[in-house]
Amino acid sequence: MVLFSFFPSRNRALQFYNTFLTLSIFQLCLVICTGILSLFMLVLNRTDLIIIEFVIPSLDPGIDQAIRCFFNPLCVFSQGYVLLLLAIPVGLLFIDYHRATPQGRNHIFPVLIASLVPFLYILLFFINESSVVIPAAPVIAIGMVLITWYRLIKQEPVIEFVHASEHLFHHIQAGVIVLNKEMLIINVNPAAEEMFDLTLPQVYAEHITHLLPDVDLLKTPPDEDYIINKISHGVEHSFSFECINIADKNNTNHATESGYIIILHDVSRQILAEADRRENLEFLQHLILTIPIPLFFTDNDNYFRGCNPAFCSFFFLPEDMILKQPIDKIIQPITNIEVHNSVIGRLFETGGVEDYEISVDVDGTIHDILMTVAGYTDSNKSKNGLIGAFLDITDIHLYQEALETTNKKLHMLSSITRHDILNQITSFMLYVGVMQESEAYETDPEVKTFIDKMEVLGSMIHKEILFSKDYEEMGIENPVWVVISEKIYHLQSAKTFEQVKITDHTKNLRIYADPLFERVLYNLFENALRHGGCVTAIDVSFSVRDDTKGVLIVSDNGNGVPDAMKEKIFLKGVGSNTGLGLFLTKEILAITKIEITETGTEGCGARFEMVIPSGRFQKDE
Q: Predicted confidence band at 554 (pLDDT cuts at 50, 70, 90)?
């Protein structure tokens, strides 16, 4: 029974509770056994052998005399054995009570009192010389009640706390190492075992320097954090090291138990993340300082909080003269003033990003700048100010103006030249006509051949000049939304196509294309009549492919296009006429990324498919 005093529990109060409860149960069983034996002796009229009194009062005066414990060998042995078992843990309990803190004594005291009740009963049994009758069962019951009361009222929260502490100790992600006052390892949790790739038996009773050779707890102030590096599983890890002194600071009169708790956190990832953050921050700072685009940011009162060297250089001001200045004092637009002020105010209210152009006067020089401004917020979603950048587009505007001027001059030159050439070609064709009416044309075959070739060449030059006009106008105007039905209706009324039936299935289809798109339809219709043989019907339809792309289809009931010519017909100069119509068609469509292919079957008619990118077509259902 002495072994019950050494239960493997980290809580000594719980240890004593188990011991005393076991001893009390043993005493109760002993009383019950001796009571049964005494009853048996009474039945046999052997009152001289009664071992222990009954709890039920006797009705016979003769038995009253017998309700006493006699010093027979069995009684002495049983009570002495229990006294020995109880004396050992009571002594240990007195030692713990003497060494405990005031709070610990409050927990031990009820157990100590409860253990003394049966102990005093047995002690009085030996010294009463049979003159005092001490009922055993009630005394033992009182001891058990006191112990159970301590268990239920006082000890249960402690036991729950111990269980919770053990659960936390074994499941916490931080590594925990427990040391005694000699700094010897007495416990480690699974997280620490994982960190150091070891088990508790391997380091039990080892000095802490076995695990942390670079840490001296005597020179290291407690309750502070340090970073240590350790090789774990072949990889270097960084641990946050915290040492907590668990010495009894409240009791200075006794050499109480003391020690340390070392808590380790694997902060390798945090250190790497912090290093990456610092590296990114340094990179961004270097980028801001070296980027040639002026950058700035303001606070929520619209005062400058920072800018880069490019911003300072643009305004010929040092940084200290820009900081803490209102934005309107540095950036003073002379054009689009209302746009600038409204954008700044709107971004402060709603956030977002906006682009706009303004002109500013910098040291007497007008600069056109493209501003990009965004409102930014902090982690609490409160408005913190603006971030802005701008690009000096003064030179771009000058280049655009010069290009527009040059284009206008070239357009005028080409128009004049084309007009003069057409006039000369017209005169040339008149002379050819006169020669065709001459006698030599009728009588001399050689002269007739030369005059006919002159007519063909003149006609080809005339068509080339007209093509140059169309090609020159292509791309000059910005693309527009073209209503296909309107263009088809306009061509249906043209005299050129009055002999063919043109059917429109597009139903208010609109596509984003060059304004010359009507010329695309004209060329396709004209190509069908010229090369399709006996074409009597042309259909125009539309479908959606892959849920994103639109396909505009122009088909006829003519001869179709041979497979060998499906790609060549779009090349310049290919064809039996000028070879320019389909080439011009493809070029006009390419301006707005529209692709055209011929997908018909020879003998069943031509089929031209124009694939329109997503977002560049609209169709009303």
A: very high
